[in-house]
Amino acid sequence: MSTTKRFDLAVKKLYQAFHNNTLNPDDCKHCAVGNILNNNDSWKHLTDKHGSTELSYLGRLHFNLGRRFNGYNPQELLIIEKSFLEGCGYYGFKKGSKLYRPENIKNKDILFNGLSAVVSILCELDGSKNIMDCSALFDFKSQELELQY
Is residue 55 classed as helix, strand or coil in its secondary structure? Predict the structure, then answer.
């Protein structure tokens, strides 16, 4: 399977962060996007609320100017971060509500779930097949179950 350079670099950085125990969803330098952007936290100014996909004034400015950060535009970065947080078990993303987090954000299972969600989104953003989908390994085709009442 052929992947883009931005995808390869992003996955490599996330893989290293996961195995070096430096992945942290509560730290803008060490979350999914922070790692993709070389542990830089300047991306947090692209939105007004952590976990939101709504661009701030600065985010819209960068987006409209066509700026890309390690291959990703501001909107894509916010989508990546939200998917990471959701995968880690965060909730409360609606406007005006508080963002709730799981108790143990250092738990490897929680972080792996977040990473799986990010890799799925990275595949989607690049228009490629989801490499996290293991159904092909088992020759499994999803079927709709018919409920009988």
Answer: strand
